[in-house]
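Page 42, continued from yesterday. The earlier attempt failed because a stray header line got pasted into the input along with the sequence. Redoing it now with the clean sequence only.
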Amino acid sequence: MTSFLMVGCSSFVSVEQKFTDGSPYKYSAKKKSKFHTVRKGETLYSIAWTYGWDFRSLARANKIKSPYTIFKGQKIDVSNPRMIASARQNNRVSNSSKKSSHNKKSSKRTSSRRQAAPKITTPDSAVTWNWPTQGKVIGRFSNQEPVNKGIDIQGQLGDSVKAAAAGTVVYAGKGLRGYGNLVIIKHSHSYLSAYAHTSKILVQEKDKVKENQKIAEIGSTGTNKVKLHFEIRSNGKPVDPLKYLPVQSGRN
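This time it went through. Structure tokens are written below.
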């Protein structure tokens, strides 16, 4: 049994499709399987990350409720969870609209006497981003060939890897092909970050980490060069980390 605390744009395909040689730069048009069979050590977050879906969409599509417990051998539908989830959401909205229409007259009488309830949102804007390690950027983000879902930062074996922002560790392991030893951190309702190719992982799943806390050490697992591969995803979609990290001279 694996339990959690944790990715998606249809233009991004799975790690298995892109990383056919174990590298995040090669692309192959292999057909994606409809179902993923859960292996030991996997979490819903790591599976969502692998196939490029938002973990919430993947959970809804498979009727998995928080805390998103999954089991070894369980089959997860990864064909198109966003479309499935969207259809279910539309059905709920449709049913809700009918009920709302039925009560429209009574609601209208009291609306003028009642203030609108405040909209509750997760403060994604409150996430403060910092560089996860020192070093020159040697690989930039690109969603075109050659694909790179994050940035690559030069470093020496054993250099510190720090959490780019405070959050909760939702994956720590080596089960994702092309990433080597990997740590994934959930920072807010929308944002997650990943730290790949590390030589040593110093945190465990469910650990709460602080901004700039050391979480791993730079290595070359899953690649042929000592470096840190760093990603940020927003609602499952890979985004350019350089648009979030503070500008610093000498980085590139």
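Notes: The longest strand covers residues 191-198.
Reminder to self: strip header lines before submitting.
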